[in-house]
Every structure is written in C-alpha cells, then in structure tokens.
Amino acid sequence: MKKIQVAFLLLFISNLSFSQTDFKFYKTVDDYANNKFVPGYEIVENSFLYIIFAGESLLVKNDNGQEERVGISKFCADFYSPEKGQLWRRYKNKSYIVLAYGEFCFYVTPGFSSAPEHYSETISGPVKKFKGKVLTKRLKEKGLLEAYEKDKPKREFKDNVNEYFNKSLARNIKYVNLLNQA
C-alpha cells in the first residue's frame, strides 16, 4: 500500500511541476510556463524531420484535424514542444532544445552534431556555439567556478563517448541553473 501511495504522490508532484502542454507552439517562454499555447495548432508526436537541403519541419495538425508538414520558417511561433517534456526554440530557422534558461541559456541541437552545445545571453538573444570559457567566466563572476571545477565528471573505464558527454552535459546544465539562480 505504501508503494502505491508513494507512486501516486510522485505522479501528483510531477503533474504540478510539469503542467505545460506538449506538442504545442508558444510565443514566449512565459507562455510555455503558463500553458498559454497558440490555439489552432498541434504538433504530431515524433514528427520532427531534418532533410539536407530541405531543412527542418514538423507535422502539424490544425483545428480541422488535417495534418500538414510545415517547414521551420513557417512555424507560427519561436517556441514549441515537439517532444514530451521538451521546449525547443527556433533561431535563424534552426531548432535548439532548451536545457536551461534565465540570464544565461543553454541548448543542444536535436539529432547528431559534432558541436551540439549552444548558449545565449537571454532567452531571446542570439544563439551561439557554446564555449566553456564563456561559462567559466560567468561562474567566476558569481563565485561558482571552484565548485564547477571540483565537480568535473570522472571518466570511468566503462564510459563510452556518449556516457561521458552526458555526464559533462549534466554538469553544465546544473551550473547554468545555479548561475541563473545566483
């Protein structure tokens, strides 16, 4: 019985924490946080598509239930949730998955990339390739650099390239969130 109560409590808390509607478009990040989506458009789950020379697109369902593949330049808003629990941002007709936002924003590109990490100074600022020096400079200004350096992920023998990258990514997300709270 206790396990059922704990499971119910976790489900209830997760619904309070993540009440945004997935598969919708949003004009701003505040609209996403307040679940104020652009009416009349619903993103079809798992419909993100990238084709060389054609660009990025999503399958979008209108109020009449008709589905249409829409190119990124024709999206009705710059923020959208094409995957469950994820907020994405359109910038210069490219998609970026928002991992942390505030005064300093941190993103990754969907799919495979040799340089998947990006940042911006604000959620509406220009998106740039992530450089560790930018983050360490900001962390130093807020007195968080020493903790960041001590928290460097350890490369274990069992780690493959992706596992180590994920550890580094988790560390960066953690410290960008701390930076935004400081």
List the helices and strands and how they pair.
Elements (H helix, E strand, L loop, with lengths): L1 H16 L7 E2 L2 H5 L7 E3 L5 E3 L3 E8 L4 E5 L7 E2 L7 E4 L2 E7 L4 E4 L8 E4 L7 E2 L2 H10 L3 H6 L10 H21 L1
Antiparallel strand pairs: 1-6, 2-4, 3-4, 4-5, 6-7, 7-8, 8-9, 9-10, 10-11
Briefly summarize what is shown:
By secondary structure, the protein is an alpha+beta fold. The chain is built from 5 helices and 11 strands; from the N terminus they run αβαββββββββββααα.
Can you count the helices?
A: 5
What does the radius of gyration come to?
Answer: 18 Å
Question: Span from first to last CA?
Answer: 41 Å
Quantity of strands, as a count? 11
